[in-house]
Specification:
mainly alpha, 20 helices, 81% helix, single chain, Amino acid/polyamine transporter I, 403 residues, globular
Length: 403
């Protein structure tokens, strides 16, 4: 049975990669705040964002297989170097900023839980992530992500069963309604799921997995697994907060606060489990954040994406070292994490437009071009990302006004 489970998880390795990249400390924070403030009322928004997520990674897989090229290479060929450079900058800037927040939150959570110094904790986790990358190849990366995502899922699922959310509240959450003060949280949840870097990552992951057009049907199933599991794990996190915090009228400023709020309800063991879940969420994002940045830079400049190459390991130091910025400067990792999510939202519409245009070119995808139904869904997704980008820009404007 264990052998069969291992084979199944390996067969859906790219799906695990996507889940690990999507569900990090940023998504956990937004989901916890959503559950604490609004219960399960925003479950419908999570479902819609996961639907768009499935659609986009489905698009990228088909585009990669039909063209035989990664999204960055194809964009460079069809739209020129400036367009490809846009993707490189979008990914690297947002992921570097994200790793400041992600590794900062992981280090801060571990320091608070263990009692060690924040800076020392940051050094430890940065070295840990770097060594994972240093180890070297896609199959290893895949196994590491499987471990992180499994720990993440199990820890939150156990907490959910301990908290016992009601079936009625879960069912009511599928009714579209935006409660007062819920618009920004909706945007945050969608922003964490529809991240441009994750969409770009899909092209690299299926390529390194060795898939091609013969694997298209399986890749479509893999995309469905990604979307479904992202929704399930995210909904479980939301349910944990709804069942423990919302029912008691408690609020949190960041996800780690929930760990300590659980102590009076379910004991120190449950809080410890939550901390483990938070750290697994952060590491499962910090790891692919660095990888997709290095993959994108290497692809643009025509460099080998082999992790054993000197340029790969040098770039890894930069993107992993981002985790030291918060403790060394006194910055707030949660705030920096939110900024990175806003940047993702701003960059995404152009990326979606590139994908749609490429999927409608016969000379690139041939008979695998988008159908009318997929084009309609793609346009709806594009318009939605435009709206979210506008919200993110307005958020930055408000931030600058407040400075």
């Amino acid at each position: 049975m264990l052998k069969k489970l291992k084979e199944t998880m390996t067969a859906y390795g790219p799906a695990i990669f996507m889940i690990g990249a999507v569900i990090g400390t940023g998504s956990v924070s937004s989901l916890v705040v959503s559950g604490a403030e609004h219960g399960m009322n925003l479950l419908w928004a999570l479902f819609i964002s996961c639907l768009f997520f499935w659609l986009l990674i489905n698009f990228v897989s088909r585009l990669t297989f039909a063209s035989g090229k990664t999204l960055v290479s194809l964009t460079k060929e069809q739209f020129g170097k400036p367009a490809a450079l846009y993707i490189v900058l979008a990914v690297t800037i947002s992921q570097f900023t994200s790793n400041i927040g992600v590794l900062g939150i992981v280090s801060e959570a571990f320091a608070s839980w263990s009692g060690i110094d924040f800076t020392l904790s940051s050094v430890f986790w940065c070295i840990f992530v770097y060594l994972l990358i240093f180890m070297g190849k896609y199959s290893v990366f895949e196994r590491v992500l499987i471990i992180f995502v499994t720990v993440l899922g199990v820890s939150f699922i156990v907490n959910m069963f301990l908290a016992h959310p009601s079936a009625e509240s879960i069912a009511a959450g599928f009714i579209p309604v935006v409660p007062e003060g819920g618009a920004m949280i909706v945007g945050a949840m969608v922003g964490t799921t529809l991240a441009g870097s994750v969409i770009v990552m899909r092209s690299f992951v299926v390529t390194d997995k060795g898939w091609n057009l013969n694997d298209l049907k399986h890749a479509n199933k893999d995309a469905i697994v990604s979307g479904v599991l992202v929704f399930v794990v995210s909904a479980v996190v939301m349910a944990c907060a709804a069942a423990t915090l919302h029912v008691r009228g408690l609020q949190v400023d960041k996800a780690i606060d929930m760990a300590y709020t659980l102590v009076p309800l379910m004991g120190q063991w449950a809080a410890t489990l939550f901390v483990i879940g938070i750290m697994a969420a952060g590491l499962s994002s910090a790891f692919p954040n660095a990888l997709v940045s290095i993959w994108t830079i290497s692809d643009y400049f025509g460099l080998d994406r082999n992790p054993s190459r000197w340029h790969f390991r040098l770039l890894a130091v930069v993107f992993v070292g981002a985790g030291l910025i918060a403790p060394l400067t006194g910055g707030k990792p949660v705030f920096l994490q939110i900024m990175s999510l806003a940047l993702q939202a701003i960059f995404l519409p152009v990326l979606v437009l590139f994908i749609l245009l490429l999927l409608n070119r016969d000379n690139i995808v041939g008979k695998h071009k988008n159908s009318t139904a997929f084009n309609v869904m793609g346009v709806i997704t594009f318009l939605f990302t435009l709206f979210m980008a506008y919200q993110a820009i307005m958020g930055f404007v408000e931030l600058l006004r407040g400075v």
